[in-house]
Each structure stands twice: as structure tokens, then as C-alpha cells.
Specification:
The chain is of the alpha+beta class. It folds into three domains: about 1-115, DNA Polymerase III, Chain A, domain 2; about 125-240, DNA Polymerase III, Chain A, domain 2, CATH 3.10.150.10; about 245-360, Roll (DNA Polymerase III, Chain A, domain 2), CATH 3.10.150. It contains six helices and 26 strands. A nine-stranded antiparallel beta sheet has the order 14-11-12-13-26-25-24-18-22. An eight-stranded antiparallel beta sheet has the order 6-2-3-4-17-16-15-10. Helix 1 packs antiparallel against helix 2 (about 70-80), helix 3 crosses helix 4 and helix 5 runs antiparallel to helix 6 (about 320-325).
């Protein structure tokens, strides 16, 4: 293999695909990136047997071929090269020569035969959505994906397409997040995408209207984001019947400025840390919210004036779970719905149903 390309393009590509590279793998090749030079494209891939990221960049190819090189070492070298044109050449002994200006490296590579094939699958369905919308949808739900591997199905989010509505649903037993968007699709489908895959896709998404193609198979999924493809297995299993877990009653309801409630909960959160987790106590009554938190390090109180409709209620929440839900609303005002001290709280927009968050309360010390 003998090629030349732009250092900036190469560095960006290797940096992005390296996120799918194993740091400690039983197969040494998986700690590297696979580089293939064919035609007028340089293809670079990273794969950890769960997630694969692959991309093409423009290159001048004098001699075709492929090689596996250490992802970390190769990226460190490319980032520090002094000029923009990079020359890469390999020989029969798998030695890779990297030249840029007056700098040259020789590093040991591995045969591409040792690199596992990225999954290839037959497409059974697909959907196209703008990068900006998908970015918002993942960001506003992925925080509620479970980190507990005892129930693998909840380490991913349910992607649901039905009647021209695309939904992402995440749940971890303490909170649930739902994000909906109208899409131009007649599909009816549902599948569970790992949270780790979504986080990698999120890093590639930009805040523009460029379309992202989601290619769906029986057991795998591909996200085509610009010139990148993120390939992942799907999680098999039965996801929660989420619609039946959303409280249908409304005993207490209020509309509040999002920033004000976030600031108040953050003030109470100062008394909590990794070792101390006391609930933030909220009393909703007489057109005000009284917040308090008492822990081993002290006590704090705060009050917010707000119009409250319905019954008074005293309820406690894990401050982190509450803040995650509040900070991912992206609206100036939110509606909060409560159904007593032990029923989950609903957070939704004042108008419409683009998102819905549920936070399960913590039992307060003075409750029987």
C-alpha cells in the first residue's frame, strides 16, 4: 500500500473511528484501526465486536492494500505531524512508513486477515431524519438509559416508528424519557438500540438539517452520518410496555419557569455528594413550592412562587434524577404533573407532546 492524503482529514477520521476501538482486547487487531486503500478512497474502520465506525476520506492511491495499525499510536503520530500532506506506505513485513515534511516514522502493523469483518446485514426497514432532530432526540433521552447489565434490554433505548411518528424511549427503573417527532414514514417498527451506540452517534451528529439515514436489519442497525457509518448490534428482548406506566390521573398541576426550578434544585443539591444522597423534599401548596434538603453535612431551604392547580402534595426526589429530567427539556417553561407522594412525577411541555419525562419519587423519612 502506498498513499498520500491530507493530515487534517486523516486525523479527524482516525479520531472518530478510534472511539469504537477496544482498549484491552483478546484479539490484538481489535486495538487497532483497519486502513484500506482502494480506488481513490482511504477507508478507515474501528470495531470492538459490538460497535463499528467506518469512514472514507479522499486520498491519492499509488498502490492499493490494507493494514491494521495501533489506533492510539497512529492517532498520536498523525495529530503531531508538522505539515498537511502525509505519505503512508507499507511493505511485505507489515512495517508502516509514515512521512510528513522532514518527519518520518516506522511502526509495526498487522495483517488485515487478523481483523474481524464488520457486520453486514440485509436491510429490512429504514428511516431518514435530520441530524439536528436526531441529535435532540438522543440527547434528551439517553440520560435515562440503564447502566445495570442485569437487565440488558434497558441498557438501550426503544426506537419506535408508527403512524408517521418516530419515538425514542429510555427507562432505568427510576426515570423514563420519551421524545417524539413526526417523520415522513409509513413504517411500523420497533427495536432497541444500545445506549453506547447512541452516544457514539451523538458525537458525530451536528446541529444542521443534513439528513441521517438509519438502516435497520433483523439484528443490526447502521447510522449513516455524513461520510461515517456506525454499525451496531440491536438488543434482543421484550421492552417495557411504557404507555401503561405513564400515570393517567392529574391531582396536582403547575406550569413553571424551567431555569428557576433547575436553579432551586441545584441549590439543594449542594448538600449531596457521592457518599451522601438525601432526597430533595418538595412541598407543593398555597401557590408555592417549598424545597428543602437535610443531610449529614447540613440543611437548606428555598421557596418558589408558582400557580398550583389541585391538591397539595409533599414529595421527595433524587436530586440528580430530577435535574437530568429538567435539564433535558429544552423549553423555557414546563408543566409538572403530580399524583400524590408516591406516584411518579411527569414533566412535559406546556403545549404539545414532543417530550415526556417521568421521575420516580424517593420515600421521605416521615412517611409510614
Amino acid at each position: 500500500m502506498k498513499i498520500s492524503c491530507l493530515r487534517t482529514d486523516l486525523a479527524n477520521a482516525v479520531s472518530n473511528v478510534s472511539r469504537a476501538v477496544s482498549t484491552k482486547a483478546s484479539i490484538p487487531a481489535l486495538e487497532g484501526v483497519l486502513i484500506k486503500a482502494y480506488g481513490d478512497k482511504l477507508n478507515i474502520s474501528g470495531y470492538n465486536l459490538e460497535i463499528g465506525i467506518t469512514t472514507d476520506i479522499e486520498a491519492t492511491i499509488q498502490s492499493e492494500g490494507e493494514i491494521v495499525v495501533s489506533a492510539k499510536l497512529f492517532l498520536d503520530i498523525v495529530r503531531r505531524l508538522p505539515e498537511e500532506i502525509v505519505m503512508i506506505e507499507t511493505d511485505d513485513r507489515m512495517v508502516t512508513y509514515i512521512t510528513c515534511g522532514k518527519v518520518d516514522y516506522q511502526i509495526v502493523g498487522m495483517s488485515s486477515v487478523e481483523y474481524p469483518d464488520l457486520p453486514s446485514f440485509e436491510q429490512t426497514d429504514g428511516i431518514t431524519v435530520s441530524s439536528k432532530i436526531l441529535r435532540e432526540m438522543i440527547r434528551q433521552t439517553v440520560y435515562a438509559v440503564s447502566e445495570n447489565t442485569a437487565k440488558p434490554i434497558y441498557t438501550g433505548s426503544l426506537f419506535e416508528i408508527n403512524n408517521g411518528v418516530f419515538k425514542i424511549i429510555a427507562v432505568d427503573g427510576y426515570r423514563m424519557a420519551i421524545r417524539s417527532e413526526n417523520v415522513d414514514s409509513t413504517s411500523k417498527n420497533s427495536f432497541v438500540v444500545p445506549g453506547k451506540t447512541q452516544l457514539e452517534v451523538l458525537k458525530l451528529l451536528t446541529d444542521d438539517e443534513e439528513n441521517v439515514e438509519i438502516i435497520i436489519g433483523q439484528r443490526h442497525i447502521t447510522f449513516k452520518v455524513r461520510n461515517y457509518r456506525v454499525i451496531s448490534r440491536l438488543i434482543e428482548g421484550t421492552f417495557l410496555d411504557y404507555e401503561n406506566t405513564i400515570p393517567k390521573e392529574t391531582k396536582t398541576e403547575l406550569v413553571i419557569n424551567t431555569r428557576n426550578i433547575i436553579d432551586a434544585v441545584e441549590r439543594m443539591s449542594l448538600l449531596n455528594n457521592d457518599r451522601v444522597q438525601s432526597p430533595v423534599r418538595c412541598v407543593f401548596s398555597d401557590d408555592e413550592i417549598k424545597l428543602s434538603c437535610a443531610s449529614a453535612v447540613g440543611r437548606a431551604n428555598d421557596e418558589l412562587s408558582v400557580s398550583i392547580i389541585g391538591e397539595p402534595v409533599e414529595i421527595g426526589f433524587n436530586n440528580r434524577y430530577m435535574l437530568d429530567a429538567l435539564k433535558n427539556t429544552d423549553t423555557d417553561e414546563i408543566k409538572m404533573i403530580l399524583n400524590g407522594p408516591v406516584s411518579p412525577m411527569i414533566i412535559k411541555p406546556v403545549k404539545g407532546d414532543s417530550f415526556l419525562s417521568i421521575v420516580v419519587p424517593m420515600r421521605l423519612a416521615n412517611e409510614s
